[in-house]
Specification:
Distance between the termini: 75 Å
Strand order of the largest sheet: 3-2-4-1-5-6-7-8
Shape: extended
Helix content: 55-70%
Number of strands: 8
Length: about 500
């Protein structure tokens, strides 16, 4: 998400970090690079100009130039202005206590029908009973698609086979909801390939007759400034309450997300981050700005972990770690948990300081690597998982054959696991902040040496020498050095 913008902005800010001292002159040079990065991300030109003006006014002030760390202060200014540009956002659906109505509109291909299902799932998570309404009569496949989605989510779908009047369908759906006990109606209205007068009149008529609590426009982030243009047109006709931006997990440059609130006055309320029906997230400007300037997004990572991880299993693993226990069986369970969060590149992008690691994974299939490791562990016996030292040459060959890999790959996993187990045990006693710092240090190590193994840390004896013992040891070393010197002199003579 926003990888190109993150890289361009990161490069611009790094150019300033390399200066011995920030001056008004080199700050302006750096901001020219920031401006270029925003334009390349397809941010609206008027928005870029205003953004750079605001940053420039704050950045060249006494507070930044004379601060202890002016570069960090400048990054904070850029971050604050990004938050102001995209926010504030109210995530409430503003549903009535009785029957609430949400209306979705948008152009064809924006992902509106899929988003209807995702929103229904979100509404149900909030304790309501949704009814999806197939009111897109322009695209016959839309009705069937919504029925399939409703079936997958076990959410009822209202349809009228052969209907030609979408306004009547929406009105009848509201009556059906009252009769069946549904308390939130979600209208999937018709789309077009482009904005036209007939579409707008039809949507305005539904808006007047049904009186939805909220009207959301679904836009495709991949279309760049076209998304902003269509948002402006829809808002003038319907007075939108929010935008749902889809396909932010794709090759979107980010310009639409940064421009839409400023150009239309309508905030982005939710973002689609994948094709799965659970891939709809609240849009948080502060978290998005944090990602863009390379500071990660720990809050989103924590929220996703709480939603998708098996919390009971996590508590058991934490207790085992506190006791100094971490086996290949535990590692296998962790791989399974991590897989629920999505692609590894996405996870790393949420951890501060780990964004650069995604470049190492650009040509790698992390999911396939996870499956390979899981396959090797699954081919072991329970005893071997608990005690890898049992794995001798013959066992290695058996495990490799079972997992469809070479024996040396089994050996490599076992060796790397020793270092990993050591690291996990050390991190178990750390605070959350300490674990993040350890993860960042690991990322920096792997950036310097991608092939570095997680070497097991050497442990000291735990015995501390007294001053007298250190002095005695020093004398012994000096005496030994003098003895070697005499012998060398004698041999030369």
């Amino acid at each position: 998400m926003f990888e190109a913008l993150q890289e361009s902005l990161g490069s611009a800010l790094r150019s300033l970090r390399g200066r011995g001292k920030l001056t008004e002159s080199n700050i302006r040079e750096g901001l020219q690079l920031v401006e270029q990065a925003l334009l390349e991300a397809d941010v609206s030109l008027p928005v870029v100009k205003e953004f750079i003006d605001h940053v420039s006014q704050r950045a060249v002030g006494e507070r930044v130039l004379k601060s202890l760390n002016p570069t960090n202060q400048l990054i904070k200014v850029v971050y604050d202005e990004l938050v102001a540009l995209m926010g504030p956002v109210d995530h409430s659906l503003h549903l009535q206590s009785g029957l609430g109505i949400l209306m979705l509109c948008g152009l064809q291909g924006s992902g509106k029908t899929t988003t209807c299902g995702k929103l229904g799932r979100l509404v149900r998570q909030r304790g309501r009973k949704p009814l999806l309404v197939a009111a897109d009569l322009q695209r016959p496949a839309a009705i069937e698609q919504l029925q399939v989605i409703g079936g997958q989510l076990e959410i009822p779908v209202y349809t009228e086979p052969g209907a030609t009047d979408p306004v009547a369908v929406c009105q009848n759906a509201v009556k059906h909801a009252r009769a069946t006990g549904a308390d939130v109606v979600i209208l999937d209205t018709a789309g077009r390939l482009h904005v036209d007068q007939e579409l707008m009149e039809q949507l305005a008529k539904i808006d007047r007759r049904v009186a939805p609590d909220q009207v959301y426009l679904v836009v495709d982030a991949m279309t760049g400034q076209d998304a902003v243009t269509s948002a402006k047109a829809f808002n003038e006709a319907l007075e939108l309450d929010g935008v749902i931006m889809t396909k932010l997990d794709g090759d979107a440059r980010g310009g639409a997300a940064l421009s839409v609130k400023k150009v239309t006055g309508v905030p982005i309320k939710f973002v689609g981050t994948g094709e799965h029906l659970d891939a709809l997230e609240e849009f948080h400007p502060d978290r998005m700005a944090s990602r863009i300037v390379g500071m990660g997004d720990v809050l989103t990572l924590i929220e996703q972990a709480q939603q998708k991880f098996d919390q009971e299993e996590m508590l058991k693993q934490q207790e085992r770690l506190r006791k100094g226990q971490f086996t290949l069986e535990d590692f296998r369970k962790q791989l399974s948990q991590i897989g629920k969060l999505g692609p590894l590149e996405k996870i790393l992008g949420l951890i501060p300081g780990m964004g650069e690691m995604t470049k190492l994974l650009a040509d790698a299939d992390a999911g396939a690597e996870f499956r390979r490791l899981a396959g090797i562990i699954d081919s072991m016996t329970p005893e071997e998982r608990r005690d890898p030292s049992l794995i001798d040459q013959s066992r290695r060959r058996r495990i490799a054959a079972g997992a469809g890999v070479e024996p040396h790959e089994v050996n490599k996993l076992v060796k790397e696991f020793e270092g990993m187990a050591d690291m996990m045990k050390r991190m178990s006693g750390m605070s959350f902040r300490g674990r993040l710092q350890a993860a960042q240090q690991l990322g920096q190590t792997l950036m310097r040496n991608p092939n570095a193994m997680l070497a097991k840390q050497k442990k000291g004896t735990g015995k501390r020498l007294t001053s007298a013992e250190r002095a005695k040891l020093k004398k012994l070393r000096e005496r030994e050095a003098r003895r070697r010197k005499r012998e060398e002199k004698k041999n030369r003579g």
